[in-house]
Structure to design on (143 residues):
């Protein structure tokens, strides 16, 4: 069962963004980055109170994704990434991004905190950050 609404066009946007942000980290890397993207679309807390569609999440400004700003995003969705995107839309979660709303690619090790949010782990090049339960309990809810 889908955890967010998504048309076929939305699936393509999510697939393209996952690929642009994390293709170098392989399928699991794209899935963990995609968890953050789906989480931002499904919660109504913090910076994401008015983010309620996949395109709005992808193009959110400020606070959006570097790939959209720098052009990596503007490549066609491939079936491989569409399949991964559908898995996330249907509620699959992957550690360390299950409850994360942010990720970034540091030059070195992951800081314990990033913009006041706690590090939940690293997958290859990306560090993932989750809010506290008090700040955003929705991201911790089960579907």
């Amino acid at each position: 069962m889908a955890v967010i609404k998504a048309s076929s066009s939305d699936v393509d946007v999510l697939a393209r963004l996952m690929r642009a942000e994390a293709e170098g980290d392989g399928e699991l890397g794209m899935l963990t980055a995609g968890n953050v993207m789906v989480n931002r679309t499904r919660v109504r807390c913090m910076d994401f109170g008015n983010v309620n569609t996949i395109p709005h999440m992808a193009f959110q400004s400020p606070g959006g994704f570097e790939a959209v700003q720098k052009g990596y995003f503007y490549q066609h969705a491939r079936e491989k990434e569409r399949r991964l995107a559908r898995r996330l839309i249907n509620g699959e979660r992957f550690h360390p991004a299950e409850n994360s709303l942010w990720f970034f690619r540091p030059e070195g090790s992951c800081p314990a905190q990033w913009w006041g949010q706690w590090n939940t782990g690293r997958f290859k090049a990306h560090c993932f950050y989750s809010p506290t339960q008090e700040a955003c309990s929705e991201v911790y809810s089960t579907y």
Q: What stands out?
A: The chain has a mean pLDDT of 94. The beta strands are 102-104, 113-114, 117-123, 126-130. The first helix runs from residue 8 to 22. The first strand starts at residue 102 and ends at 104.
